[in-house]
Structure formats: structure tokens, C-alpha cells
Amino acid sequence: MKAIKTGIMGGTFDPIHYGHLLAAEEARINLGIDRLIFVPTGDPPHKHNRNITPAEDRYAMTLLATAGVLEYSVSRIEIDRTEETHTVDTLRAFLDTGIRPEDLYFITGLDAMLSITSWFEYEKIPELCTLVTARRPGYPVSGIEKLPEFIRSKLKYIEIPQFAVSSTEIRTRVMSGKGIRFLVPHLVEIYIESNNLYKNF
Ligand code: NAP
Predict the structure, then answer these.
(1) What distance in angstroms lies between residue 45's CA and the mean position of ligand 1's atoms?
(2) I need a surface site. Which of 50, 95, 104, 142 has the fewest CB within 10 A?
């Protein structure tokens, strides 16, 4: 029987946008991933210096953005954790459900991946999954060569279609009264408006 390949799409998703969705879909197609689980971060240890939108809002927006896509789901595993969340613990929790490390993929943005050597127990991560990173158009790709060989050997790299949008840019646009139509899914745009998110970021 063919093993089911699981992709974990990790991110703060503050907010989720079409760049994330394009990266997720490109990874799914390129790597033959059967199911993709979006995992919004809970209390990111590396982001204590900025106001993060409450996890429940980021989770709701991720649900709205992915609803109706058969292969996609959203996990509360990190937002329900009361302690600080670490990718290594999340990966272990998924492996505990019976997934084999060779069938597990962790996908995130290049700039996040480049900081992996500062993550909690990062040395263990390449034993638990294959790492996948998406390059944001316009960002230099330099830096990967500085990662240790045991990480690089487990790192797959996907090119995403040219779609230069970032969560920071979306927050800035909302704060300055600019529209975000066609940068995020319509329901996410409505959620941001209805809940007055990013007005005073
Ligand atoms: P981030 O600093 O917010 O994101 C870094 C860059 O990657 C940003 O440009 C971001 O774009 C982009 N990005 C983030 N997630 C992406 C995705 N899934 N697909 C494509 N691009 C993405 O990093 P983060 O989102 O907080 O963290 C990313 C992942 O790394 C999370 O799963 C987090 O838990 C993990 N992480 C773990 C540790 C740890 O275990 N100690 C430490 C750091 C990060 P946008 O700004 O547009 O989103």
C-alpha cells in the first residue's frame, strides 16, 4: 500500500495570504504530498518583540483561507499548547500518530529556514522529517550554503510563482488604509475588516 505523505505548513500566518497558499500548493504538487496540514504558531518564542495577533484570529483566518480544499486542513496543535511552542515538538507529535519520518515534510519560508540553527533542538529536526523551503520572489537565496551539511542534505527547495506579498506588507497596508483585495482570500479580507485587525499595528 502506498504511504501517505504529510506536509506540515508552519507559519505565524499573521495574516495568511496568497503567497503562503501558492507555496503550499507548489510544495504539494512537486513533492507528491497527499495531505497538507497548516500549523499556525502559538506563542512564537522568536517573536516576543512584536505584537502578534491572537492565535484564535490567526487560526480562524487560516481556516477561512483553506476551507474547501480537499487536501488541506488546519491544526490547533501549537495554539492549544500552553507552553512555548517548538517545531521539534510539533514534528514529534505528528510522528506519534504513526507517520514515518520519511513521509513527513516540514514546509516554511526561506528566511525562517535560514534561522533554523537557532531553533530549539534543531539538530534533531532533520531526523524527523524532510525540510522544504519556498523562496520569496525578490529575496536573495544566499545563506543556505551556511547551514550545516546535515540540514542541507535534508532540505528541498521549491520555486514559487512570482507573487511578492508578505504578511508585514498586508499589515502595513491595512494600517495605512490601503486595500488588500486579491492579496488574501476574500473571506480573510472580510475577517480582517470585521475584527478591526491591523488598524493599530
Ligand atoms: P517568520 O519570521 O514569520 O517568517 C519568515 C519568513 O518566511 C517570512 O518572510 C514569512 O512570510 C515566510 N513564511 C513563513 N511561513 C511560511 C510558509 N509556510 N510558506 C511560505 N513562506 C512562509 O517565521 P514564522 O512564520 O514565525 O515561522 C515559520 C515556521 O518556523 C513556524 O512553523 C515556526 O514555528 C517555525 N519556527 C520554529 C522555531 C523553534 O522551534 N524554536 C523558531 C522559529 C521558527 P510572511 O511574513 O509573509 O508570513
Answers:
(1) 12
(2) 142
User: By residue range, what is the domain housing residue 106?
Assistant: 6-163
Closest CA to ligand 1's atom 21: 109
Q: Is residue 125 part of a domain?
A: yes
The answer, yes or no, to whether any atom of ligand 1 lies below 6 A from the CB of 109, is: yes
In a domain, 127, yes or no: yes
Q: Are the C-beta atoms of 124 and 88 separated by less than 8 Å? A: yes
**For the whole prediction, is pTM greater than 0.90?**
yes
Query: Does the CB atom of residue 86 touch ligand 1 within 6 A?
Result: yes
Instruction: Render pLDDT for 187-197 as a digit per residue (tens, 0 to 9).
Output: 999 999 999 99
Residue 53 domain flag: yes
Give Cβ neighbours of residue 200 (< 8 Å, ≥ 6 apart): 175
Nearest CA to ligand 1 atom 5: 112
- Per-residue pLDDT tens digits for 68-92: 999 999 999 999 998 888 999 999 9
**104: Cα within 13 Å, side-chain hemisphere:** 22
What percent of the chain stands above pLDDT 90?
78
Span from the CA of 93 to the centroid of ligand 1 (angstroms)? 19
Number of domains in the chain: 1
